[in-house]
Amino acid sequence: RFHADRMTKGAPAVIEQKGAGVFDAAAGPFTIEARADRIDLLANGTAFLIDYKSGKIPTAKELQTFNIQLPLTASIVAKGGFEELGMRKVAAFWYVKSLGRKEDGKSDATGAEGEEAALLSAQVLDGLMQWIAAFDNQATPYLSQPRPQFTDVFGDYDHLARRREWSVGSEE
To answer: What would the pLDDT profile of 93-144 be if each residue is shown by its tens digit?
Structure first.
């Protein structure tokens, strides 16, 4: 149903393409790149972004905090970062669960449209620019595992943080 409805409002203009946008950050220009699963060009000239997920799709809250891929991609689209589109206003962005043949066919999607999409995209971009400014500051520490809920036995950057060495303690 989702795709049948989508096709009545526009057609795919970008499929599995890379785009990039250059944004003004505290220490100078910062480039953000994205690979879009699909961007439809609607009849009114706006863009509709779709990201397919084979697993769990993000909740509305996760869309604002951890799963910021589509709001950032929307910012890239608005800056003209996809050659095929040029500068476009973004009408909506949605994460859509890809359903297999064995599933019940229920639509599973989350996203934002209209002013909500524009506001969320602006907030996410602003939040990223704040992070970039913070990490451009030499006094900001780079933690190897900054989010306790995702801490594992050995993280990707733990060797740089010398985590194993520091966690041994002094038992001598």
So the answer is: 999 887 665 555 555 788 899 999 999 999 999 999 999 999 898 898 877 7
Element (H, E) at 127: helix 114-136
Task: Measure CA 48 to chain center.
Answer: 15
Query: Tens digit of pLDDT for each residue in 58-106?
Result: 887 887 778 899 999 999 999 999 999 999 999 999 998 876 655 555 5
Tokens of 55: 């697993």
H/E run at residue 92: strand 90-97
Closest C-alpha to 131, from 18, 34, 23:
23
Q: Within the chain, where are the H helices?
A: 2-7, 60-65, 69-78, 114-136, 158-161, 163-167
User: How many other β-carbons are positioned within 10 Å of the β-carbon of residue 138?
Assistant: 5
Taking the C-alpha atoms of residue 50 and residue 33, their distance in angstroms, rounded to an integer, is 16
Cβ contact 89:46 at 8 Å: yes
Q: Record the tokens describing residue 151, joined without a space.
A: 């801490």
Regarding pTM above 0.90, the answer is no
